[in-house]
Amino acid sequence: MLRPVRTRTQYPVTLYSRYIINEPNLCHKGKKVSCLVMVHTAPAHSNRRFEMRRTWLNTSHYVPEHIVVIFLMGTVKNQTIQQALHDESRIHSDIIQGDFIDSYRNLSNKGVMGYRWISENCRNAEIVIKTDDDAFINMFKFFEKFSFVKEEKRSFSCMKSGKNMAPIQRDMNNKWGLDKYMFRGLNWYPFHFCSGIALFISPDLFPALLHAAYTTPVFWIDDIYLFGILPSKLLDVKYIELQQNFTIDRQKGLDCFRQKEHNCPYLVVTVKDGFVEELWNIITNG
């Protein structure tokens, strides 16, 4: 008779693991930190990082606002890529690399590393933006019309899924499919959570989120774990809905910027190669 496989409860490895590349002093150079932008990226995505630094993450465009940027990633077996990362780090001083395999199933570990790094090194940020390397954020619009989120405490401002509104996928062929033993007996996720493409997090939450990770087994779907399960362990966490200011339709976002320019309501657009440059040119030259 076959016995069910028992697996040891696992917690995020990045709670304790070392940093391979670290920049612990980025937020402590005598200036206020208007905004910390924390980008989830993959080691091989150097072209995306260079494009972001050249356009909307070129912090010189937002003076007198002081923006700090970090790119979070794990390890890679390819030593050519790893050496390129060390070279990139020496040039830009914005890479945070943890000692865990960079993979889709480890995105929650990457996020917890970000929570830990901020708790250790950047408690003085006025707001934290978490984003992916396939997103474009109109930072001019953020500082002009959305800086009110800086005044919110214990809050996520994001494209939100409400409590008991997002279905749990049970089809194991689905990218996010879960077997029947996970969230047993439930058909809907029983908490609010945010889309991880981009969200705005009040800095006062990070120590509490990190503390919650010490007692909350890691769950591999990062949006659910980082922005749903962990916050659900805390009291008085607020979710501010920015759905109308996001689009995951790349072409729709590009058309909106082309046609409406500064009146386009989108703050966040998902992108692919070539879109970042085009969006940036419209914003800065339109």
Automatic annotation (TrEMBL):
Q: Which GO terms describe its biological process?
A: protein O-linked glycosylation
On whether Iron is a keyword of this UniProt record, the answer is: no
Q: Which keywords appear in this protein's UniProt record, sorted alphabetically? A: Glycosyltransferase, Golgi apparatus, Membrane, Signal-anchor, Transferase, Transmembrane, Transmembrane helix
Give compartment(s).
Golgi apparatus membrane
Q: Which domain of life is it from?
A: Eukaryota
The molecular function terms in GO held by this entry are: hexosyltransferase activity
Q: Broadest EC class?
A: transferase
Q: Which InterPro entries match?
A: Glyco_trans_31
Membrane-topology annotation of the record: Single-pass type II membrane protein
Q: What is its EC number?
A: 2.4.1.-
Please give an example of a GO cellular component term from this record.
Golgi membrane
Which protein family is named in the record?
A: Belongs to the glycosyltransferase 31 family.
| Protein name (Swiss-Prot/TrEMBL) | Hexosyltransferase
